[in-house]
Amino acid sequence: MYFGVDYHPEHWVHPYAGTPDRPESRWERDAQMMVAAGVNAVRMGEFVWGICEPEEGKYDFEWLWRAMDIMKLANIEVVLATPTAAPPLWLSKKHPEILPLNEQGLPLHPGTRHAYCLNSDTYWDYARKTVSAMAKALGKHPQLIAWQIDNGIGGHTTEFSFNPETRRDWHGWLKAKYETIQRLNECMGTRFWSQTVTDWDQVPMPMVAPTVHNPALVLDWMRFSSDTIKAFVKMQADLLHELTPKAPVMTNLRALSRHFDHFDVAEVLDFVALDSYATIKSKSSENAMDIDMIRSLKKTNVKMPGGSETGFWVIEQKAGNVDWQEVNSLVRPGVVRLFTYQLISRGADGVFYFFWRQPRIGSEIFYGGVLTHTGRGDNRVYREISQIGDEIKLLAPVLKDTKVVAEACILISHENMWTQKLPKQPNKYFKLRDHVLLFYSALHDRNISVEFARPSEDLSKYKIVFAPSLQVLAGGEADLLKLYVQNGGTLVSTFCTSLVNEHHIVHDTGFPGDLTDLFGMEVVEFDPLPPGEENHLTMKGHFPTSHLHPARLWCDVIEPKECQVLAVYAKDFYANQPAMTMNTYGLGKAIYIGTMSHQYFYYDLVAWLRQLCNLFPLLKVPDTVEVSLRQKDDMKIYFLLNHQSSPVRIQFYKPMHDFLTGNTFTGNYDLPPHGILVLDEHSARVGASS
Ligand code: GLA
Fold first, then answer.
1. Residues enclosing ligand 1, CB less than 6 A?
2. Apex 148 CA angle, 142 and 154, nearest 5
3. Residue 11 φ/ψ, nearest 5 degrees
4. Beta strands in 343-403 (DSSP E)
5. What is the β-pairing status of strands 534-539 and 521-528?
6. pLDDT 10s digits, 187-209
7. Distance between CA 466 and CA 485 in Å, rounded?
8. 596 to each of 437, 511, 556, 582, how far by Cα in Å?
9. What is the pLDDT of residues 507-564, one digit of tens each?
10. Could you give the C-alpha distances from 587 to 54, 482, 489, 518, in angstroms and in order?
11. Closest residue by CA, ligand 1 atom 6
């Protein structure tokens, strides 16, 4: 288990630290303080290009080698980041063509990070040279355990550029995809608004135009831009694999919020890593969803530092406040610890805090850190991190090679997210992420583990699959869903499913396209509702309800065929028509929900599905306690997290051993505010009880 910090030794030299005689002397003290806090790894180097190559071809990596030596003395391992996220100023001065042009065709100027066009051959050449030089200079250092490629790739909307070289690559990409102009015209539906082309060169990039671009073109543009990012990451991954074959590579990702296909990028990495912003979110299920999404990106061929073949890292867990909200409040005592355990409980095998120390220079001086600006180490957050560090030493051997296993799956795809962000949607107030979160929260709050998958993955290992609003579904993906149900799976889909195929062409065989036989019904119309306007669900049959359930934002008008009706609408011209159905298909069941409701509906849904599919909650605890499980063979480690600022009473029906205190609990136990238990059932191995 790696317990680390994001360290920037380049910030901590004279005149900002150290002395004129020993400008780097602070590094030793930092390393000692890290060791005292239990830190066993650092990430360094993500923005050091201009320092390591101050003039073209004149490299200086020795200072980083020295920093790594200091880490070696302290027994701290090192993750190096390639510095391509911050090209030096001399490069854009010499080659202004590397600067990205925005959708208005205007250049984004240098003077910050990420000022590059990822389709620039020149930029690729320089990136290749600097990454090779770094790997050759530092790759043999014994402390190196992994590489991070670039930093925050796609950040600041650098997924897109509109440079002449981008145009060239775009046309090449289209040619490879469609092969003939005729096919491009057909698939893209360019007859609409007179957009037919006779030459590849005529296909526009979706730059600022009088009105909206062809959605099929924009969808391809997103795929192309995503492929560009994947290719850039792969170029670096290939180089690093060749030069330092023992060090696995990853990159730091946010939870699917950037505009590229994270599943695709994960394919070219050895493992994935998350930039966690847990400290600014309000719901524990929202954080948990981000974590589970990241864990789900790479399910096979995982190669972690230390040899594990499962898990992911959190390479930037914010140690305190961020600096880009309107008000950047402090993170309350105990909350960073709580979030650290939430990450670990959901499979993280490395957690690194951002920053090691609040910087004295640059644009992020008000960001939180493990150390404050004084660097004294007598501050609250340092003490909290040190406590976690002590605990991790106890837990690391227990958690080794354990993993999270899920029987429930939620389908997501970037293509679908992009599609639903296109203009002219049926309801601009409908947000796919909110819809996914309703399902996720219901499962999370009932302590049922969830994994995310793309519709093209093998779903056979899941007892139940949720597919909320997959507006775009390729023919092959629809077949896979049918196969899953045919073989005994339970599928839950919703409104806004399979309206268009992968070319963004609307189905003419009834909605949900290619799936009406699976659901045994057809959606003949859909009625988007404005916020505040509601229909209601009248439940039929055995679906138990705890509340009256509204129908919001979208109501499918459904014509039932073979399906059973589980709920109908209460009013309007489609009153008494189905709002929720279930169909038996092969050995399985296909459930369809034609509307969106409030959270209680999804709680009721999960309660009912638990019976239907034999899904068991991990442990029975009060609703406000988050439970997760990591397991290996017959060993099961439960994590209980109290996200409230008040205690919660838990009742243990059998003795449970807590790894953090060494105690065994039976009967009632009051989990303190933000308290954590790490439990297993093997009480015999410990003596003490409480
Ligand atoms: C990302 C970057 C960091 C920092 C934070 C600010 O996580 O990797 O360098 O700028 O954003 O939120």
1. 151-152, 252, 275, 316, 322, 364
2. 170
3. -80, -20
4. 348-354
5. unpaired
6. 999 999 999 999 999 999 999 99
7. 12
8. 12, 17, 10, 17
9. 999 999 999 999 999 999 999 999 999 999 999 977 888 889 999 999 999 999 999 9
10. 66, 11, 7, 12
11. 322
